[in-house]
Amino acid sequence: MSEIITKQQNELTKIIERFTQKDGVHPTAIPSLFFMRVSNTAGQSHGVYKPSFCMVVQGAKEVWLAQERFRYSPADYLVASVHLPVTAQVTEATPDVPYLGFKLEFTSSQILELLHDSEFRVDLKQNPKRAMFVSQIESSLLDSVIRLARLLDNPKDIPVLAPLFTKEILYRVLQGQNGIILEQIGMEGSSTHQIKLAIEQIMNNYDSPLRIEELAEIANMSISSLHRHFKEITAMSPLQFQKQLRMQEARRLLLTESADASEVAYRVGYESASQFSREYSRMFGFPPKADMKRLKETYDQEQVVTEQVSNV
């Protein structure tokens, strides 16, 4: 990394350290901006990435989307352009040098506004690409990130300047080597935008039976096109996507409420408790009861719950 980027990252590290005195996810005065701090590499966490721009400022992290692994460190940034169920793990962190993360959430309407205001031209016929990518960080992008973070020391400036700096960050990402992925999600009529509508339908109704014909109609695609494009964008089928959502919600319910596995299975959409237990074991490595016992023996309740929502 260049000397300029190293200097920028040192400044950003100091800002995040001041606003994260303990481990966990820390919302900021900027509604879409979150800081993360983790002091050990305890294990994997499961969650749903919202559309977001993510940076590792200190340490390193790995994210699995289905079977694909994305690794990023202070030399990179990661972008998820749609809601995606993932597994994540901090791979470099110690109490003395904790993992520090920066996450900025955005919407497809913000991307669409940028496309309208700029000279970007999207080819609607272009094949959709994976909705998650890692790119190399650049000084111009870091500069806009730091200016956004500095606003936390001047709260009165946030309402006016935060939207401008956020727009600049997204503009820099659009200019980058993988900017076309953001272009596709922002443009109505693109296959990616149509699949986004199907994803929203699954997320809002994950506990209901999956009706492929209904999804295809919402996406304005044939059933075969829906399956093909959905997997190109999310690395999984619609059914696999729904199962991930169900399992993650089931684990959250088991951790936070005094409900047994059979009740939770029903609440997340399963008619068979045994099928639920099998699929839960396949995803988390243990059946529900054993998983809860293991987690509660390893961590206190508050820490586990924090890990579960750290990707949301």
UniProtKB/TrEMBL annotation:
Report the protein name in the record.
AraC family transcriptional regulator
Q: Which domain of life is it from?
A: Bacteria
Key words of the record: Transcription, Transcription regulation
Q: Does the keyword Amino-acid biosynthesis apply?
A: no
HTH araC/xylS-type domain spans which residues?
Answer: 196-294
One Pfam family name is HTH_18
Is this entry keyworded Nucleotide-binding?
no
Q: Which organism is it from?
A: Paenibacillus alginolyticus
The record's listing under InterPro entries reads: Homeodomain-like_sf, HTH_AraC, Tscrpt_reg_HTH_AraC_N
Q: Which PROSITE patterns match?
A: HTH_ARAC_FAMILY_2
